[in-house]
Amino acid sequence: MREFVQRTLTWLCIITLIGLGFWAWQGPTAGLVAVIVSLLAWLGFHLYHVALMLRWLAHPTAERVPDGFGSWHSVFLTLYRLMRTQSQSKRKLTNVLERFINAGEAMPDGVVVLDEHDRIEWLNPMAMEHLGLDRKQDVGNQILNLIRQPSFHAYMTNASFSQPLVLHMTQPRELVISVQLVPFDSTRKLLLSRDITSLDRVQTVHRDFVANVSHELRTPLTVVGGFLETLSDMEEVDQDTLRHFLPMMMEQSRRMQSLVEDLLTLSRLENSPKAVAAEKVNMQEMLDTLMVEAEGLSQGRHQIRLERDCTQWLWGSASELHSAFGNLVSNAVRYTPEGGTVTLSWKAEGDRLRFSVRDSGIGIPREHIPRLTERFYRVDRGRSRGNGGTGLGLAIVKHVIARHNARLDIQSEPEKGSTFSVIFQRERSADPDQQAA
């Protein structure tokens, strides 16, 4: 600016000197004409550069800054430098904004930016999935008009954002999400959402598990406690009373012991390493053992059969496989009426091996089959307890076969019987003469 003023004063001095020179040479009229012509030329020079600037201002870019002469060269050079600086700053801001947007887009949690009136300014894909929003249609709309759950409206109205709010969403799919509002400047807020469906399911399973264990233990404890209280109130206990009470107390004690043992087995399976030791399991001995156990449990009330169509052994854990197969066999015997048939089979099917337990028992309705491996899930609670089951057998089976990369197949029809099959992949097959690696 100082340079521009100095050059202007210099040109005015030059024009004055020109006018004085013509005054002295040709007289006052010539001097005045010379001053006017010089001023017009000087004015035209500036008007020309002003026109260049105005034309550039219509589309200002650093690449199109015009070239000037004299003081205008300094002006245009300054503009060029300012435009370059501004472009660099704009590029940096653009890069920062792009990184922020990309980070927001990639976040596993939902993010919604709200203005001071709770209108949506921006949201990422996870927020669209969690809250059922649409980026094209919902940006600019108030969030309260789009999420109509009363608890969310109360959360926004109370403006107490220290704790998250749990919402159960049904659209576009069933989700349990945790949302929390975080103010980040004087006007804007972040609405953060997180999918806690799995966590909520785990907590529900944990609550149900504790409730079921408490319920399963309370019944036999109540029975044993009642018998003990009765006996303690009697002054003299005769042998007939003892013979009547003691077997029932023993039965309830065995029931509690079975439940505790199954709980310990399930806990051990869940906390064991996923990899199963490469132990070769003699399936012929396993089948003989299962037959003996089935006949002992049946006590002659059923016909027990064995179909041994395969000589292959298995790689895996003998104790875990025996626990899983034994649970399937005991369930078949328990839920098959007297006079029925229980068939154990071991066969090869192409490149797979199948262990099956088939019975002619009461069968299972189709709607119950997907939930049979849940802990304490029973189709008929009264009948299950009467048969002595703990409700954990199929949960143990599920964990064992998962550790052996196998699959459980259940085929059942009410009043016609059930078939429980464990299907092993080829890599689990072992030749009897093959040695462990």
Sequence-ordered SSE layout with sheet pairings:
Layout: H1 2-26, H2 28-58, H3 71-106, E1 110-114, E2 120-123, H4 125-131, H5 135-138, H6 150-158, E3 165-169, E4 175-183, E5 189-195, H7 197-233, H8 239-271, E6 279-281, H9 283-298, E7 303-308, E8 313-316, H10 318-334, E9 341-349, E10 352-359, H11 381-386, H12 393-403, E11 407-413, E12 417-424, E13 429-430
Parallel strand pairs: 7-9
Antiparallel strand pairs: 1-2, 1-5, 3-4, 4-5, 6-8, 8-13, 9-10, 10-12, 11-12
In short:
The chain has 437 residues and is an alpha+beta fold. The chain has helices at residues 2-26, 28-58, 71-106, 125-131, 135-138, 150-158, 197-233, 239-271, 283-298, 318-334, 381-386, 393-403, and strands at residues 110-114, 120-123, 165-169, 175-183, 189-195, 279-281, 303-308, 313-316, 341-349, 352-359, 407-413, 417-424, 429-430.
